């Protein structure tokens, strides 16, 4: 017997608790909708929470099905890569322009880095 089958009662209890919690939240949202300060947002949540409760049971159902018969793995001979040309090409890096302002700024940054380095060299004993 697999360990999952031995834990099945605990999983069923967890699913039931999760669904009961969702239904309790639906009831709470419904009472909020019926109150004087309620809005249509509360009504939407009141209708949404039962779907979450149903999803708890659906997820458990799928879990049990996958446990009994796991999904078929793809064959190794099949193509698993994205075909070339399907996605747009990555942009190429921009080539450095002969911009005098940019060259001047880069020279300024290099000078700052050199002066900072020599300043740090002088302060270290």
UniProtKB/TrEMBL annotation:
Keywords noted in UniProt: Membrane, Transmembrane, Transmembrane helix
Domain of life: Bacteria
TM stretches of this protein: 42-61
Keyword Transmembrane helix appears in the UniProt entry: yes
Name used for this protein in its record: Lipoprotein LprD
Protein's organism: Mycolicibacterium arabiense
């Amino acid at each position: 017997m697999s360990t999952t089958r031995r834990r099945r009662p605990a999983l069923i209890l967890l699913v039931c608790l999760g669904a009961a919690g969702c239904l309790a939240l639906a009831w709470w949202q419904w009472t909020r909708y019926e109150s004087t300060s309620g809005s249509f947002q509360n009504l939407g949540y009141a209708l949404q929470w039962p779907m979450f409760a149903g999803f708890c049971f659906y997820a458990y159902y799928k879990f049990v099905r996958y446990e009994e018969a796991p999904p078929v793995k793809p064959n190794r001979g099949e193509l698993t890569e994205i075909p070339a040309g399907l996605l747009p090409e990555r942009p190429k890096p921009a080539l450095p322009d002969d911009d005098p302002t940019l060259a001047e700024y880069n020279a300024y940054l290099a000078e700052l880095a050199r002066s900072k380095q020599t300043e740090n060299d002088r302060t270290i004993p």
